[in-house]
Amino acid sequence: MALTFDPQQLPVVGIDDHLPPLTAEVLRSASVRRRFLMPPLWTPEIKQEPRFSERLPTHASVLVALVEREELTVLLTQRTDHLNDHPGQVSFAGGRVEPTDADAAATALREAQEEIGLDAAFVDVLGAMPTYTTGTGFIVTPVVALVRPGFTVAADPFEVAEVFEVPLSFLMNPANHRRHAIELNGAQREFLSMPYDSAGADGKTRRYFIWGATAAMLRNLYRFLAA
């Protein structure tokens, strides 16, 4: 669904720098793995968006892929501009549940292979986060996994314009979490953004504007790891 506004042009109404960043120890692979093995009592901060689509709810999964570099990074995609759902936005690899998928993890792994060519042999699924419901009616299960280096990516050019990585430490620092608000169809909509400046595929510095559902699921991951 095409947006009726440009989220990058909306003013910032708040920055969450009053919240502590997660430490390097918490963001180690072993620590993240332990957290999923022994999950704390916690509540997701953001569970759903105001609905602005009339279509029936659709179940989906995304792969929150944590790549084991010197420090963990998050594997993200820039969607192509012509897609019907969330065109041009930064997202996790993922998509709709198919009848042949055994569970949410199977959906996420299949979609990651189809969208970016990520071989499941490099992926170690840790667990799933609570669902997040988008304004377009997708009930999304974020599946968190560690990814061993050595994998290659081959983006589906129809769906994915670019594949890139962002340090997990950047995304788990609320000083980088910005708040925005806009009134749509008579309802106030608030959302987070996590703009990340880095060199793109062409070597030129550009801004990857992480916002909406992707930013919300990352914020829930922050709450989960901080709990």
Structure notes:
With 227 residues, the chain is α+β, with helices and mostly antiparallel strands. The chain has a single domain, classed as Nucleoside Triphosphate Pyrophosphohydrolase (Alpha-Beta Complex). The chain is built from 4 helices and 13 strands. The strands form 3 sheets. Strands 2, 3, 4, 5, 6, 7, 8 and 9 form an 8-stranded mixed β-sheet that branches. Strands 1-10-11 form a 3-stranded antiparallel β-sheet. It is globular, with a radius of gyration of 17 Å. The model has no long low-confidence stretch (mean pLDDT 91).
Write a concise synopsis of the structure shown.
With 227 residues, the chain is of the alpha+beta class. It is built from 4 helices and 13 strands. The strands form 3 sheets. Strands 2, 3, 4, 5, 6, 7, 8 and 9 form an 8-stranded mixed sheet that branches.
